Write the structure tokens for this entry.
Amino acid sequence: MTDIHLPEEEIEEEQGPQMGLLEHLNELRIRLTWAAGGVLVATIISFIFARQLLDFLLWPYANSVAGQAQLQTLRPTEGIETFFKVALLAGAILSMPFTLYQLWLFVSPGLTKKEKRYVYIFIPSALLLFGLGIAFAWFILVPAAVLFLANFLPDIFKTEWTGQEYISFLTTMLFWIGVSFEMPIVVYFIARAGVVSARTLREQWRVAIVAIAVLAAAITPSIDPITMLLTMAPLIVLYGLSILLARVGQRQFERAMAVE
């Protein structure tokens, strides 16, 4: 069988120009700078509706105590710090499409022209998973956690939460659960790079369950088991989806190695 060798010009045109380590680091610096700039601009814009967003975030607390709830401030700067934190979270969420686009610009030079078309699937899928994570946390996890914590031993504990603690509780849960829902996309690219295989993920499912339990405990500020189990359930489902995507990424990696 005769081997078919493509000219170097065609290989470079198909796969893109090769970059050294310093060039990769410089490109990473550029993309991180643009991503940080996008977050900054989105955060500045978020100051316009941060007050309305604070009122919206108070909704689970107000429902849990059956009345109009106000948050305490124990330090002179606590109110403004909480206000800025909410604006920063809103800015991070609003700038997510731009951040993902910068990530794609960093990864795409190492891909072929055919693989670069995946941007039309990668960015919408990542945004969809992030939005699903936030929606799941807001409509299922947050009400259950706030209701449980606000009414825990009411004859002993009086529920009067501070603004910083309550907002930190919500923003931590919403943001990190949204990020954790990106697991299938991350696993796909790791498998596409040849770092992990679908078989390894399938055989190590017990280790994955333990890791998911640790992750659920880390990203849910509440220590009650109900919230933790509710967090684990979708992550386990996403792990199964990650195995399927890893198989796709692995096959693409093997085809690329066969061509080389």
Remarks:
- Residues 1-14 have pLDDT under 50 and may be disordered.
- The radius of gyration is 23 Å.
- The chain is about 75% helix and 0% strand.
